[in-house]
Design brief:
4-stranded antiparallel sheet, mainly beta, 326 residues, Methylamine Dehydrogenase, Chain H
Length: 326
């Protein structure tokens, strides 16, 4: 990423050279080594992709009720877990990186060991299904939301697996995150609002319309201060959570946005969706700096490597692709 930033600085100072790696006007042709499809794939489509701590391994889930652990350097499968609980559309990791929180189609949420696949805790949620999950940075709290009018919050230190708190929501939850202080929760709703709660109040303390179109997907920065919100019409908004104000729109035709991710530093973002294109954004400059195409009908998930030098994306054809960004 240092190389990427240096290229951007040179472009500002001197104008983009003909061989500029990330040119919005005329992106260069990708070399064969820039993209590598992993050797296996999920039948009927990939749902989630993410790097594991350290970046040498990655995890994915699929419509085929499997979760797979991948060796990133070789692109080969290291482990495969099977079962309905491994059909998940979102994932959150513990600070140590060895535990994952994932929602299952039956509305339950599992807190499980990535190395063994064994469930440590299982929580009852909603019969309507839960699609978004989050873990607090101190490892004490878990949360999940979905299609019903609730966000469920669990105390991971409690011995009982019952819900510790239920927050009222008047819409479907697209994505959620704990505040940096771990004392509250922010959630993007399907109608385009971003609402905030404290853990001690069931009603939201603030709701703001962040996007005027139905929100199809969203992502929060690691510190929880900013959100990226995409719509089914291709609109992509960068939102300041603390000020409840739009920072800027990221312009570029994309179609239905179904995959978003911030880089670990929050300086860059990835988006993907129905136009089969994965886009790399400089969020502070508000511009696209590179793009590549997926092999399936749409891009289902995107993720940054911890060092921001690579990305992963999953596709509706079940393939997992590594994209070298440096």
């Amino acid at each position: 990423m240092k190389i990427l930033l240096a290229v951007l600085s040179l472009a500002v100072a001197c104008g983009p050279p003909k061989s500029a790696m990330y040119s919005q006007a005329a992106p260069p042709a990708l070399q064969k080594y820039d993209l590598r499809v992993f050797s296996g794939r999920h039948a009927n489509g990939a749902l989630v992709v993410s790097f594991l701590l350290g970046g040498k391994q990655a995890i994915s889930s699929g419509v085929d009720d499997t979760a797979r652990i991948w060796n990133v350097p070789s692109g080969t499968e290291a482990k495969k877990y099977s079962g309905k609980q491994f059909h998940f559309q979102s994932i959150a990791f513990s600070a140590s990186g060895d535990l994952a929180l994932t929602p299952a189609p039956d509305g339950s949420v599992s807190y499980w060991n990535i190395e063994t696949g064994q469930t440590q805790r299982k929580f009852s949620g909603s019969a309507n299904g839960l699609g978004a999950v989050a873990l607090s940075s101190d490892g004490k709290w878990a949360a999940a939301g979905g299609q019903d009018t609730s966000i469920y919050v669990w105390d991971l230190s409690a011995t009982a697996a019952s819900s510790s708190r239920r927050l009222d929501v008047d819409g479907a939850v697209v994505q959620l995150a704990f505040h940096s202080s771990n004392q509250g929760i922010s959630a993007v709703l399907g109608d385009g609002r971003l609402c905030e709660w404290t853990r001690d109040h069931a009603k939201p303390v603030r709701c703001s319309t962040a996007i005027s179109e139905p929100a199809s997907h969203a992502a929060f920065s690691a510190d929880g201060h900013r959100a990226l919100i995409g719509s089914s019409y291709g609109t992509l908004v960068l939102w300041d959570v603390d000020r409840a104000a739009e920072i800027r729109k990221l312009e570029g035709s994309q179609g239905d946005i179904v995959a978003l991710a911030f880089s670990p530093t929050g300086n860059f973002a990835l988006s993907g969706g129905a136009d089969k294109t994965v886009r790399l954004w400089d969020v502070d400059a508000g511009r696209q700096i590179s793009s590549t195409r997926a092999t399936g009908d749409y891009v289902s998930s995107v993720a940054f490597a911890p060092d921001e030098n690579a990305a992963l994306f999953g596709s509706s054809d079940g393939s997992i692709t590594l994209w070298q960004l440096k």
